[in-house]
Each structure stands twice: as C-alpha cells, then as structure tokens.
C-alpha cells in the first residue's frame, strides 16, 4: 500500500483533515485537503466537521488553528518546525516596549506566537497589513511586530510612522537586489513578484508585491507568461501545477525555509497514527489572542 493511501485511510477513519501551507514540499502539497496560507487555512478548517487537524506548516500556524478551533485536536507532524521570524518576538521584551509606549496600538503579524498575539490589539497578514494600519486612529502610536520589512512596507504605503520590531525572515532576507537583477537579465520578459517580507531595497525592484495568496491570484489572471518569484521557493510547485502554460523562476534559488521542509509524508502518517505532536494553547492566552485575530477579520 502506498504511503499516500495509508494516510488517506487513516484520515477517514479518524475524521481528520490535512492543512498544507504553500511552502511545503510538493508531495505533501499533493495530499492536502486544504492548501493555502496560514490564516486562510485555519479559517477554512473552522467550518469543517473534522475532529483532528493535521497542520503541515510551522508551529505558529498550528497555534492559529488551535486558537480558532479550540475544541479540536491540532497536530504538527514535526515538533521542530518553528519559525525564526516568530521566535524573534519575545513576550517579555514586547511587554517592556509596550510599557514605554503605554498608548501605542500593537499590531502583530500573524507570524507570531500565541503569547505575542495575546499582547496585541490587532493582528494582520501580509495581505491586509495596510488596511489594518489605515483603520487605526490618526496620531496614535503604532508598534508593529515582528517583521521590520513588512512593517516598513506598510508604513510607506500608509504614510504612518511605525515603531518597528527588528525581526526578519531569514529566508526572505536572502532575496537581495543582486540576485533579482541577475534573474531579470536572464529572463527580461518576466514579471518580478516579491513578498513584502523581502528587504526594502529588494522591494524597490519589484513589478508587483503580494503575499502568497495574492501571488497565486495575480499569476492566474495575468496575461504574462513568465514570472520571477521572490518568496520561499515551495510556492513554485503550486504555481506551476495551477498554471502549466506559464514559466516560473525563483528570484533566489536558496530561498528555502528549512523549517517548512521538515514535514514529510512519513511524518504526516506517523502524526496521524500517534496523534502527535498535539498543539496546546492555554485558555487565557487563546482567548486574548483570538480577540486580536477576530478584530483583524472584522476589518478585512
Ligand atoms: Fe518563518 Fe520565514 Fe520560514 Fe515563513 S519562510 S516559516 S516566515 S522563517
């Protein structure tokens, strides 16, 4: 019996659903019940009747699923699949920063731990960061945590001054202007699409800037044939599958997130068999974090 069939059989028996992030390896993407970005997946999982959610992504994503579906069992197939960007925001340090800016509104990117979300006033994604900031009362101080580049991009677009946390995604940091220039020379007809987690000097070279959901939509509708993609390279598998007539080139061949690549089919099967690793979020933290998430959803 193929491993994919074993997963399918066990998934049915246990009434489980498999959520897969766009950056996962191709064969894991292929067994997805739902494929997408972190927040979108967790929202869609809320409306299913599954008892178990297996989240093929990284820890903060599985936490969001648990916060939005507290009554369900949420499993992460590899307990080491973390997010260095999310880990750069320390709850105690954030508490200190808040204390020195007592009237500031705290905006937390969804790439944060539940403890950080619990301290935030509102969450945001890479797709709605500009909208979220625009709805904050003029003149209010705003702390943006943890991604300095997404924050700088949102500040530029909104004209607001943000207090930026000095975090960054190590994978997107590899997408530097030099590699973008090189790819453009190799593929002069291609449209350059970058993720807003890229550095400011790289974003200045983009034709378009989108989060992963926006990239997928844009490429589908575009009449262009070639695209240079500036984000984690795993998304190219999905882009190619959904747009077989178009060509995709990674802006940076080394933009590979090691954490996103930890999940394999073997680990997914094991996770379902052993019902591990179970994600737990304390009731108090989940309740506070869900307020920040729901506030964001209300203004989307
Ligand atoms: Fe975190 Fe960056 Fe990896 Fe995404 S690609 S999980 S933001 S380290």
Give the gist of this structure:
The chain has helices at 3-13, 26-29, 38-46, 59-68, 84-87, 91-100, 114-119, 129-134, 148-158, 170-173, 177-186, 200-203, 212-221, 235-242, 265-274, 283-299; strands at residues 16-21, 34-36, 52-56, 73-75, 105-109, 122-124, 142-145, 162-164, 191-194, 208-209, 226-230, 247-250. The protein has 300 residues and is of the alpha/beta class. Helix 1 packs parallel to helix 15 and helix 3 (38-46) packs parallel to helix 4 (59-68).
Topology:
Layout: H1 3-13, E1 16-21, H2 26-29, E2 34-36, H3 38-46, E3 52-56, H4 59-68, E4 73-75, H5 84-87, H6 91-100, E5 105-109, H7 114-119, E6 122-124, H8 129-134, E7 142-145, H9 148-158, E8 162-164, H10 170-173, H11 177-186, E9 191-194, H12 200-203, E10 208-209, H13 212-221, E11 226-230, H14 235-242, E12 247-250, H15 265-274, H16 283-299
Parallel strand pairs: 1-2, 1-3, 3-4, 5-6, 5-7, 7-8, 9-10, 9-11, 11-12
Helix pairs in contact: 1-15, 3-4
The protein binds iron/sulfur cluster.
Iron/sulfur cluster (SF4) binds at residues 58, 83-85, 111, 169-171, 232, 257, 259-260.
Number of strands: 12
Quick check: average pLDDT?
97
Cα shape:
globular
- Strand content is 15-25%
Strand order across the largest sheet: 2-1-3-4
Rg result: 19 Å
Structural class: alpha/beta
Number of helices: 16
The separation of the N and C termini measures: 44 Å
Largest beta-sheet characterization: 4 strands, parallel
Q: Report helical residue fraction.
A: 40-55%
The set of bound ligands, ions and cofactors reads: iron/sulfur cluster
Order of helices and strands: HEHEHEHEHHEHEHEHEHHEHEHEHEHH
The residue ranges in which pLDDT falls below 50 over 5 or more consecutive positions are none
């Amino acid at each position: 019996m193929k491993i994919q069939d074993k997963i399918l059989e066990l998934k049915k028996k246990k009434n489980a659903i498999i959520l897969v992030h766009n950056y996962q390896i191709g064969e894991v993407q292929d067994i997805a019940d739902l494929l997408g970005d972190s927040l979108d997946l967790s929202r869609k999982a809320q409306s299913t009747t599954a008892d178990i959610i297996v989240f093929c992504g990284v820890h903060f994503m599985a936490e969001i699923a648990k916060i939005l579906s507290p009554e369900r069992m949420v499993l992460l197939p590899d307990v080491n699949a973390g997010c260095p960007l999310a880990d750069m925001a320390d709850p105690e340090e954030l508490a200190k920063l808040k204390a020195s800016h007592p009237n500031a509104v705290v905006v937390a990117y969804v790439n944060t731990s539940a403890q950080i979300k619990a301290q935030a006033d509102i969450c945001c994604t890479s797709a709605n960061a500009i909208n979220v900031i625009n709805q904050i009362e003029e003149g209010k101080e705003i702390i943006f945590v943890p991604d300095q580049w997404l924050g700088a991009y949102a500040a530029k677009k909104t004209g607001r001054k943000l207090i930026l946390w000095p975090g960054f995604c190590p994978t997107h940091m590899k997408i530097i202007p030099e590699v973008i220039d090189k790819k453009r020379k190799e593929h002069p007809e291609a449209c350059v699409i970058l993720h807003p987690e890229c550095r400011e000097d790289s974003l200045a070279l983009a034709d378009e800037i989108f989060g992963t959901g926006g990239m997928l939509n844009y490429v589908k509708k575009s009449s262009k044939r070639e695209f240079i993609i500036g984000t984690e390279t795993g998304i190219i598998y999905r882009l190619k599958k959904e747009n077989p007539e178009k060509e995709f080139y990674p802006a940076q061949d080394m933009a590979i997130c090691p954490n996103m690549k930890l999940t394999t089919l073997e680990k997914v099967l094991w996770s379902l068999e052993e019902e591990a690793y179970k994600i737990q979020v304390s009731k108090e933290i989940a309740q506070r974090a869900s307020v920040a998430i729901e506030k964001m959803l209300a203004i989307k």
